[in-house]
């Protein structure tokens, strides 16, 4: 069984960011000039993400150390979180009595249209699956439950899910990953490999996307230039 229902302690939920959290002003950080007018604030700085990821890696080592696992990276939005999580686990392995041999595989999910989660889910790749899944964001939980059904068909010994962000959404299924970085309000975030129509993946920070007219105007100009 993978994941849990939402009756856990605050520690299990990860760092809970309240609904009224305003974020940090953009001018306190460095971001590409071409994105500045499309972003509202820095929601989670990169250093905080890395510190929390290191803590999750330590929890995973405590729970799964001395097992042989397959890390299933959920593309595209989960690639940065998964890569950093695996790096943290590797560092811990070099300084621990426990070992955690890892193979890394990849699977691609697509369930978003613009900034909305849809009912349609496309799964591509990964035929040999087991144990630890890394996903950047869990909102309604429907995508992850569909993925877990797919993975369980391969009869792994166990499945654990690590999610960097879990959204509080009214339409949620109550699903909660085994390892949670942050619980956040139902805001659309980009950066740290999370995107809006493939834009903003190159930002190291998690930021709030304004989805303003200027961004759509820029998209039209780029399309008309081809």
Keywords:
226 residues; alpha/beta; 7-stranded mixed beta sheet; 3-stranded antiparallel beta sheet; 5 helices; 31% strand; disordered C terminus
- The chain-level mean pLDDT equals 78
Residue share in β-strands: 25-35%
Gyration radius from CA atoms, angstroms: 18 Å
Overall strand count: 12
H-E string: EHEEHEHEEEHEEEEEH
Number of helices: 5
How far do the termini sit from each other?
A: 49 Å
Assign the structural class, choosing from mainly alpha, mainly beta, alpha/beta, alpha+beta, or little secondary structure. alpha/beta
- Report the biggest beta sheet as strand number plus sense, adding barrel if it closes: 7 strands, mixed
The outline comes out as: globular
Can you tell me the residue ranges where pLDDT is under 50 for at least 5 consecutive residues?
A: 4-8, 126-131, 212-216, 220-226
Strand order of the largest sheet: 2-10-8-7-4-5-6
What does this entry show, briefly?
The protein has 226 residues and is α/β, with parallel strands linked by helices. 27% of the residues lie in helices and 31% in strands. The strands form three sheets. It has a seven-stranded mixed sheet with strand order 2-10-8-7-4-5-6, sandwiched between helices. It has a three-stranded antiparallel sheet with strand order 3-12-11, covered by helices on one side.
Please tell me about this protein's structure.
With 226 residues, the protein is α/β, with parallel strands linked by helices. The chain is built from five helices and twelve strands. It has helices at residues 10-13, 46-64, 79-94, 142-152, 213-224; strands at residues 4-5, 15-16, 39-44, 69-75, 102-113, 116-124, 131-138, 159-167, 175-176, 179-184, 189-190, 206-209. The strands form three sheets. Strands 2-10-8-7-4-5-6 form a seven-stranded mixed sheet, sandwiched between helices. A three-stranded antiparallel sheet has the order 3-12-11, with helices on one face. The longest helix has 19 residues, at 46-64. It is globular and about 45 Å long. The termini are far apart.
């Amino acid at each position: 069984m993978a994941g849990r229902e939402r009756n856990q302690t605050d520690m299990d939920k990860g760092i809970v960011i309240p609904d009224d959290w305003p974020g940090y002003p953009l001018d306190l950080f460095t971001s590409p000039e071409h994105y500045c007018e499309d972003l509202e604030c820095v929601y989670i700085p990169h250093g905080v993400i890395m510190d929390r990821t290191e803590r999750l890696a330590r929890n995973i080592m405590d729970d799964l150390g001395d097992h042989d696992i397959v890390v299933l990276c959920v593309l595209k939005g989960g690639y940065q979180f998964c890569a950093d999580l695996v790096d943290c686990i590797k560092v811990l392995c070099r300084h621990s009595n426990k070992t955690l041999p890892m193979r890394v595989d990849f699977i691609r999910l697509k369930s978003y249209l613009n900034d909305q989660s849809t009912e349609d889910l496309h799964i591509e790749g990964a035929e040999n699956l087991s144990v630890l899944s890394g996903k950047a964001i869990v909102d309604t939980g429907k995508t992850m439950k569909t993925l877990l059904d797919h993975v369980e068909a391969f009869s792994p010994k166990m499945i654990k899910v690590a999610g960097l962000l879990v959204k509080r959404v009214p339409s949620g299924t109550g699903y909660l990953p085994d390892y949670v970085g942050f619980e956040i309000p139902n805001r659309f975030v980009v950066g740290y490999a999370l995107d809006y129509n493939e834009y903003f993946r190159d930002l190291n920070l998690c930021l709030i996307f304004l989805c303003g007219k200027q961004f759509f105007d820029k998209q039209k100009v780029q399309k008309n230039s081809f």
